[in-house]
Write a structure and sequence with these properties.
Layout: H1 2-49, E1 61-65, H2 70-76, H3 81-90, E2 93-95, E3 102-106, H4 110-126, H5 131-160, H6 167-175, E4 180-181, E5 184-185, H7 186-203, H8 208-217, H9 232-242, H10 247-255, H11 265-279, H12 288-303, E6 308-314, E7 319-324, H13 331-348, E8 356-361
Parallel strand pairs: 7-8
Antiparallel strand pairs: 1-3, 2-3, 4-5, 6-7
Helix pairs in contact: 1-7, 3-5, 4-5, 5-6, 7-8, 7-11, 8-10, 8-11, 9-10, 10-11
């Protein structure tokens, strides 16, 4: 009938229109994704090209040169009284061994280690080494290091264009000079993050001053971890809140390891700049043992999933390639497997930067010509 023909025509037209709309939406999404990816790469490339950063070396101990090996005896003192007084006044361990013309100062707190290094160098130069003199020189060295910390904080804030910081926050920024993370000097790292984030913020038309402020303070909690309990993120949020920082800056600190959701585009930019600074070649260094353990654990996590045949951690642990059995894992499952492995790595492993997960599914057909 005419009515049925009309309904059929309308249904056909609707189906065609729906299919065309779906294709159009898919094409628009693909185009938007390509343009966003290209624009993001351009912004990151621009930021990285404009940053000339140094490679860093890990500092876990300090070495003090001696004029001669006889000085070791004077540092130890009669029945060890000098070395005991020095260790008690500074809170460090002084290691005197067979190393010619040198002693080693060891301490988990880099500020105390620097005070001890400075005091010991002055005592050696002065030549008068006894308990009374040791206490006097250590006090002067402590005052000098405090001054260095203050000046380093003020200079860092000036260099990156951050103004109006609370004096206590300036001191904490200055303490970063004597703190390292994965061998990367913390003060150099946060300054580098500031510059990268500021360039990205300009390109994205965000507030560059607020972005640099969040970048400067995003790791502020790391200088407190020796003295207080809690993660560096928790400590950073507490100290920034205590000294009245902007809520956007506090969210930059809280969200840069995805502990809480991002509340602004600025915190996302700071997180991206932090990842760029930490993952660039030569930026960070780990102890060899922990590096091997991390790579081994990385391969173990990926191998634990069903259908995985072999795994290889490559590019110094920044990428893991997972080869799957084609009969057990199809193409649609491969993408899902890559996401599951990435999420498990995030929850079970600690690592600098980011790790790329590549799932490879390969089918081979073999025959022989006889």
């Amino acid at each position: 009938s005419v009515a049925e023909a009309k309904r059929e025509l309308i249904r056909t037209v609707e189906d065609e229109a729906r299919a065309e709309a779906a294709n159009l939406v898919r094409n628009l999404k693909d185009q938007a994704r390509r343009e966003a990816d290209r624009e993001a790469k351009k912004i990151l490339a621009l930021a990285i090209q404009r940053i000339a950063a140094d490679h860093t070396a890990e500092t876990t101990v300090s070495t003090v040169a001696l004029p001669n090996d006889e000085m070791k005896g004077r540092i130890i003192g009669r029945e060890g009284r000098n070395i005991r007084a020095f260790e008690q006044a500074t809170g460090v361990d002084v290691i005197i061994d067979d190393t010619p013309d040198a002693v080693t100062i060891s301490c988990f707190d880099p500020v105390r280690r620097e005070v001890a290094r400075l005091a010991l160098e002055r005592l050696i130069t002065d030549g008068r080494i006894h308990p009374g003199r040791i206490e006097e020189v250590v006090k002067k060295a402590q005052a000098d290091v405090d001054q260095q910390i203050q000046e380093a904080g003020e200079q860092a804030a000036y260099d990156v264009g951050v103004h109006g910081l609370h004096p206590e926050l300036v001191k904490l920024v200055g303490r970063m000079k004597f703190r390292s993370s994965y061998g990367q000097n913390l003060l150099k790292h946060v300054k580098e993050v500031c510059w990268i984030a500021g360039i990205m913020a300009n390109e994205l038309r965000l507030d560059p001053a607020l972005t640099r402020r969040g970048a400067l303070l995003h790791d502020i909690g790391k200088v407190l971890t020796h003295e207080h309990e809690g993660t560096h993120v928790q400590l950073g949020v507490e100290v920034a809140t205590k000294y009245g920082e902007n809520p956007t800056v506090i969210n930059c600190i809280a969200a840069h390891h995805d502990d809480v959701p991002h509340e602004s585009a600025i915190s996302v930019v700071v997180q991206a700049a932090d990842a760029v600074s930490g993952s660039r070649p030569g930026a960070r260094r780990e102890a060899f043992e922990s590096y091997v353990k991390r790579l081994t654990r990385l391969e173990e996590i990926a191998t634990a999933f069903p259908g995985v045949e072999k795994t290889f951690a490559i590019q110094a642990g920044r990428e893991v390639r997972v080869i799957v059995t084609p009969d057990a894992v199809d193409d649609s499952r491969a993408g899902e497997l890559a996401e599951q492995i990435a999420r498990k790595i995030e929850t079970e492993l600690q690592y600098p930067g980011q790790i790329k997960v590549v799932v490879i599914r390969e089918t081979r057909a073999t025959d022989y010509a006889k």
